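The freezer alarm interrupted the setup, so I double-checked each line after restarting. Inputs confirmed:
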Amino acid sequence: MFKKILIANRGEIALRVIRTCREMGIKTVAVYSTADRESLHVRFADEAVCIGPAPSKESYLNMAAIISAAEITNSDGIHPGYGFLSENAKFSHICEDHGIKFIGPSPEMIRAMGDKATAKSTMIKAGVPTVPGSEGLIDTLKDALKAAKEIVYPVMIKATAGGGGKGMRIIRSDEELKVEWDKARAEAGAAFGNDGMYMEKFIEEPRHIEIQIAGDQTGKACHLSERDCSVQRRHQKLVEETPSPFMDDNLREAMGNAAIKAAEAIRYEGVGTVEFLVDKHKNFYFMEMNTRIQVEHPITEEVINFDLIKEQIKIASGIPISGKNYYPEKHAIECRINAEDPHNGFRPSPGKITTLHVPGGHGVRVDTHVYAGYTIPPHYDSLIAKLIVVHQTREEAIDKMLRALQEFVIEGVKTTIPFHIQLMQDERFRKGDYTTKFMDDFVLK
Amino acid sequence: MELKEIQELIKFVAKAGVSEVELESKGFKIVIKTQNKAPENTVTYVQAAVPQAAPTPAAPAVLPQAAPAVPTEDLSKYITVKAPMVGTFYRRPSPDKPLFANVGDELKVGSVLCIIEAMKLFNEIESEVSGRVVKILVDDASPVEYDQPLFLIDPS
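Predicted 3D structure, all chains:
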């Protein structure tokens, strides 16, 4: 078992890791930039090392400084948290080279899932459903019609060099394809100087449902059920819940087994998440795998009564997983509280927190690194707290979340609490009837 | 000295909170060392003022560092050279060579002050000012962190 772990991160996740290490009797080392001198994770750790100035590139992304800090403190493990270097294969490798255990997967595992094309082909080989698509580029309209027949309408034609929606079309029939093919090609050629096109199945009314997995050093993996993260704004998750209101036992079994296959295909070590898109017919397709702990991990912890960080540390020290799969016994929701102004395009609102009252009571958990008097630095992301509630039923969990949000006082900066309060009273959300398109139609009062 | 007197002395020293007492008299010498650390040896690394509202559980142990002695002269006229990186601070190029900089040495811009070793690479830290070395704030072969004060230089 580890004697001392260095946490290569900041904010609420650094505190989260420190807490579990404390419970396990493992010494902790916090690293911090000059902007984070007053941060809670620095105070709570047993030791703290300043590793650089405020910019992430020179501090939290500075591999040399972090390894150096681990060396001078004699740390035998590094926990990378999420973001920053957590999915950096080079960093995982450097830790290996310096005899420090990276609490996460090997560089090869990170690479296998980091590259979209490699990940997709690995999944196809493993028998995990992926978004059906053309093999490589499509040259002629004739080839396009053939591909569409195989993939089955509706399909998306996309520019290979593309982005920003240019050269992209949703096609629902042969007639439509005949009309749009040349136009899309021309658009792509004009926008990117490359009119290469490929085709993918268009997932209708997709839901973002991810499966938590854990894999140990023997290559065995298990799943810990799903999280529904469909409420997103510009691909940033705002709210997560488990179980998914769209899930049923059969779908969970099928997706869970697919996620295990994905993990075992690369002999994955650590905790990770396999993200799927699920259409209205309950077909699910592999989207990507996150080879790290996720922001929303607490909701899984609450419904299963499990410490995922502890599991990460145990796996990294060679302890095998239990081998069972885990199923939700309650309902949990997480609201990400960001220092952003929801009435002004969610623009970041850093500054000093003058008053803070954190909600409490039965079934309420707050993971936060802020305190009254703390100044939120402008250099990092805007997440300041995660409010998690758990109860027997979904409806009660929503009511509890509303109550807790109304009790949550943060003054001095703007936060997204008003947005979440409105969301918890939204009819569609309460019905559980939402997809990734939900936020497109949501209007903040 | 009687045994009882020695026992009383030991109790007294322990209660007084000192770390070491040496007593010498005709015919005997007694040295008593305790676990107590004298307050002036306890170092809080964090330079910034601690805000009162912040919750503070057990104070974290920080990197061991020689406590900067408080001189009676005005410090503000000196330039503090701070560590530009994390690593181990060395005052010599190698154990058998002389020190890079001693108190009283005159420096030019570019004079090598010390080495900070990180990941087996030895980085020479050069002075960005010219002046006289007033004080060396870190012990040889100690770990240092980013921005840690290393030297006080008098630029006048």
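Quick read of the result. Chain A has 15 helices and 24 strands.
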